[in-house]
Design a protein that fits this description.
By secondary structure, the chain is α/β, with parallel strands linked by helices. Helix content is 45%, strand content 13%. It contains eight helices and five strands; from the N terminus they run αααβαβαβαβαβα. It has a five-stranded parallel beta sheet, with helices on both faces. Strand 1 (69-73), helix 4 (77-89) and strand 2 form a beta-alpha-beta unit. Helix 5 (101-111) runs parallel beside helix 6 (128-139). The longest helix has 14 residues, at 173-186.
């Protein structure tokens, strides 16, 4: 029983199925960081598909939260790529990757992310602690320090940047997720 796929699609197109083709192409993401009430999430998805859906079941319609936006500050390409993949798994948008403090500040000025993942030892004249402090003072954006250096002296130097927290390398997804949940809870 072999059929041409074009012949199989034709009845669907005639029945109006091709009108909703764009809905089939959309990526389904059942969980966004910061979305905890599945009932509200379901109502929001229904309204996106059909705005005329009545919310008679008593659920309030809320706008879906946008994913967190993060700048990665890491001067080792492989680690930066690993972080980017981990963040993608956590449904986080990486808006840029910087290797120096100056690059990080430029990306923050351009994109205004929700937070940064900040390595301590980065290229350039300033280290990650100095970069995080400058970014916090100028933009009010905090960092998650992702580093192998978490000694008391380094943590003391970083206190002025009001870090969200510290994740030690090698990075564990659960630790990074915990830090990002803190950011998601604080954002509007």
């Amino acid at each position: 029983m072999t059929q041409d796929f074009g012949q199989m699609r034709a009845p669907v197109a005639k029945a109006g199925g091709m009108q909703n083709k764009s809905l089939l192409r959309k990526t389904y993401r059942p969980f966004r960081l910061g979305t905890s009430d599945l009932g509200k999430d379901k109502a929001t998805r229904q309204q996106q598909v059909d705005p005329a859906v009545d919310q008679a079941d008593g659920l309030e319609a809320t706008a879906p939260r946008r994913p967190l936006r993060v700048v990665i500050v890491e001067d080792e390409a492989i680690i930066a790529m690993e972080l980017e993949m981990l963040l993608a798994e956590l449904d986080v948008d990486v808006v840029g990757v910087a290797m120096t403090a100056d690059e990080a500040e430029a990306l923050v000025a351009e994109h205004r992310p929700d937070c940064l993942t900040m390595d301590i030892n980065i290229q350039g004249a300033r280290d990650g602690v100095e970069a995080a402090r400058a970014i916090f003072e100028k933009y009010g954006i905090r960092s998650v320090f992702v580093s192998a250096y978490g000694n008391d002296e380094t943590r003391s130097r970083a206190a002025d940047a009001q870090p969200i927290g510290w994740v030690m390398k090698p990075v564990e997804t659960e630790q990074l997720d915990d830090m990002l949940r803190r950011v998601a809870q604080d954002k509007p």
